Amino acid sequence: MFSVAPLSYLSCFIGLFLYRYVRYVVNLVAFSCFRPIPLPEKPSLTSDDVTVILPSLEGRGMELEHTIESILQNEPKELILVTIQANLELAQKTIAKMPASQHDRLRCLSVPNPNKRRQMARAIPEVNTKIIVFADDDVSWPRQTLKWMLAPFENEKYGGVVTCQRLRRKEYPIFSQKRIWSFLGALYLERRNFDCAATTFMDGGVPCMSGRTVAYRTKILRDKNFTYEFTNEAWWFGKYRLNADDDNFITRWMVSHGWKTYMQYHPECEVQTILEDNPKYLKQCVRWSRSNWRSNLTSMFTERHIWSGQPYSAYAVHLTTLSPPAFIGDSTLVWLLWKAGQTWPEEQQHLAIYSLLVWMFISKFSKNLGHYIRYPSDTALLPVSIFFGWFHGLIKLYAMVTLDVDYSLRARDYNLKKQKLAILSQKARNRNEDEFAFGMLSANKAQAGKHGRVDTQANRLSHDAVKLLKTQDAGYLRTVAGRGRKEISKLEQDVVMTKASGNGRKVLFVEEDERLNGTKGRAEKRKKLSNEVAAAGNNQEEQEVTSLGTENIASVTGTTVYAIDIDSSSTKPTAPTSKKALAAQRDAMRDLRAARKRRKRLAELRVAKLEALKKRQREIMAAADELELQRAKMARTVGGVNKDGIKWKIRERKR
């Protein structure tokens, strides 16, 4: 029978233990030694060199408004909100809610379909500053965030800067479901901050430049090659087009093009965000796991820049993707140690296993020590974090076998909401108009059956009360109808006057230099013009010049203007010969044509409005007649005499 010596078990145990925990010890030391880059005394970059791009799907909501307000406190030069075309109007309304003094800093753009990469690419060409900052629509910034993010850019070698992140905490009962989900999300961000700070200190590697808040040099993102690769990235030999993993792609682009990245871990640039506080958090974990699989495999086996540029990060971050799940790794270590200690004294074997278990517990606790210091009550949930760490192995395996699934959860949720709203809107359009509120039936009415055989006498209005209500409705309709008649009458007069506007006046321009020749010549011309006025008729086309106003034409041309009524059959005055008079006459005719177009358009609008008012008036009068008929029926006064002389009345059938 095949057997393995205890020494072989011990060797396997030591190898696996070192592989797993050398990384932990080095990260612990590196995190303790890490320091953010301090603010420079005389910075070359300020907030005026920053444009913030904010992709958002819905373009509205309290979280988005809070995000915009916190960003504007940092005074960037511009904030560009990018949403989808269907929600552009909502996004513009959100921008309009901001203080008026900030409106010149805000702008809205849109793309046809939900796609974060397309939204980012749409806004990048619009940027005119040296630095671009991407932010999610559910984050809040401290007031000094931009200053700390700009500090590393004083070194020209740095191309990207990311910040530390915390969960925006909400208070729930200690063992409530929402408290547990929020606790798990907070620990995820805490571990992420720990790993990013450690790898940044060791070799400058950042596992992922998280898109929650990240800054890049504009010249990097304006590269045409970057834009093409960013919007056309595919995975698994070009089989699957990626709309997700935008932050992972840019992180790899920084590494492959020789740009350094840095993480600013400081309370004054600590960005707060929100995560799901319900079972949807598991879906987020699945998406993050898929991103890690795709991005880390691409980094290690396709691009391979990390092996030479960031070797420690390759070991501490990327290789963990291929490591067995935590539950299998922990169980394997315990089993190997137990097998290796079978030849040891029993007490020594037990002591070794207990020591290993304590070490595992410390390693799982210490990464999140900062969270437990800030919130000591969460230590009661420590076992939950350990069990979830083991359960996360199953999530990791599930993500591995579903890598072809693109994580577009927001887009799917948006489309699902859209379908539900369409169904509800259709139901609302088909509702019974006699109902006071559609779908708001009480449980008693729903249980009463098809014919509603319940006692409703207590809630039924009296006959007189209904008659009073209908009388009030009739009075309101009469008031509206009277107001409508006045409006129609006035508009009809305007339309008639516009169509039947009579003949007018023709404007003649007297050359300025001739006017200055003397009073005699001027008097003769005025006399001649007066005679023409007395003998001339009117002309419709020339009246429109008068509508422009002779004073306006004179002020524009600088010439003297005489208004003359000239009949179309009368002799026209001699055409001016000077260039100045000709130019003035051409300007006047151009204004004449423009005024004619405006008058024609105004007439069309008035006619259309008149037709709409008449249609509304007919509907109101029909409603008033129907209401009068109902009132007459209630008063039992509807009737008449037929051809045979028999009197008749309308009565409602008794039920």
From TrEMBL:
One of its GO terms (cellular component) is small-subunit processome. SUPFAM superfamilies: Nucleotide-diphospho-sugar transferases. One of its GO terms (molecular function) is glycosyltransferase activity. It is found in: Membrane. Pfam families: Glyco_tranf_2_3, Utp11. Keywords: Glycoprotein, Glycosyltransferase, Membrane, Transferase, Transmembrane, Transmembrane helix. InterPro entries: Glycosyltrans_GT2/GT47 (IPR052427), Nucleotide-diphossugar_trans (IPR029044), SSU_processome_Utp11 (IPR007144). It comes from the Eukaryota. GO terms for biological process: rRNA processing. Its main location: membrane. PANTHER family: EXOSTOSIN-LIKE 2, SYNTHASE CPS1, PUTATIVE (AFU_ORTHOLOGUE AFUA_7G02500)-RELATED. This is Glycosyltransferase 2-like domain-containing protein.
